[in-house]
Amino acid sequence: MTPSILAQDPTLADFGRDPWWLVLGKIVFAFAFGLLATLLGVWFERRVVGYMQVRPGPNQVGPFGLLQTLADGLKMAFKEDILPKAADKVVYFFAPTISVICAVTALSVVPFGPMVSIFGHHTPLQVTDVPVAVLLLLACSSMGVYGVVLGGWASGSTYPLLGGLRSSAQMISYEVAMGLSIVAVFMTAGTMSTSGIVAAQGDGTELTIFGQTVPAPGWYAILLLPSFIIFFIATVGETNRAPFDLPEAESELVAGFMTEYSSLKFALFMLSEYVAMVTMSAVTTTLFLGGWRAPWPITIWEGANSGWWPMLWFFGKVIALVFVFVWLRGTLPRLRYDQFMRLGWKVLLPINLVWILVLSGLRSIEDWDTRGKMIAVGIPAGILLIATIFWPSRRPKPKPTTQEQVDNRPHGSFPLPPMDLQVPPSPRITRVVAEREPANIVAGSDSREV
Questions:
Q1: pLDDT tens digits, residue range 175-187?
Q2: Phi, psi (5° rounding) for residue 60?
């Protein structure tokens, strides 16, 4: 394999010309990337969370514990496959496969690199591309949730059904915010093709700051900061990752939609979760982080965005986003269901609509396409969005002092335990005592004094 000498952004005309063996090789590479990223992702998450919790994590099976995930997969493959008696057998079997297939299919339109030369064939490092590739990504993300919903319904049990219902509400709530976030990308890039969006984020303009001319940042994570923040939050919600893992909340639903699954079907659900996490990290990299383009200051090197080097920058960005997923899981507690719904409908959705309207109005101004003006609006809007999300909704009431607690006790009563430890009086005992000794019951007295 000989890398191409000059960097070249692929276009839609460059697809559909490869021989069958090259197309098959790209498909196998994308599938292998998803599976290998899952194996390493599970090990990476356990090691990082272990480091955050001051414990070693997996370190026994293989060097640095790298083979621990493989051992767990083999263990699940040989475990007994239990089928619930009340389950819908056909849907119960196909639900995990729907989630895995949708997560892997999304990788087919993700660009891994520019045009390269493979055995004399000049081809893009991407399986395929279409004029509406981003809509295909949204469709795969939406269809992947059907595996969770159908798995919860087909199990014939209460807890999986509740987890499936939560997942459907989660999909509706955060798919809207995700779609609106990509609208800003369409407006700025002028295309829905993933290769075209990566090409639009190239460093082709310059800014003048304090009299100095510097390259203008082209990543939409900077130009469209509010859209990037909302899109990533919606991504965490779509993939059922903490702190939005309500469909599988073990403290409430045992294991949620996966409660009745075992053996390889359980492993497929786990596989789909991690493949979806890696896939959405790749999609975020493509739409907002410049795709395979090298970050500054690596761009000072002329060959940074040519040949096979861009694959390294792409994988580095994906790993960084996966680390953020793991970081959130090891840091934030799970949200309550009402908090989760309120964040999606009352915070992300209105702010996204206002941002789209503002961006549409500003782009109608003449000469608005300069990146300096977009940065001047996008960064303050992103900071305002972060402040809105994390601003406390109400001021907590100050705790009463010990003297205030003593003064607020009923007159003549004994010291009482905290309210959450008090046992309410039994109505049956109160009624029996009242019938036996009516003279001892004083009107208006507390039943605890009887």
A1: 888 888 898 888 8
A2: -105, -40
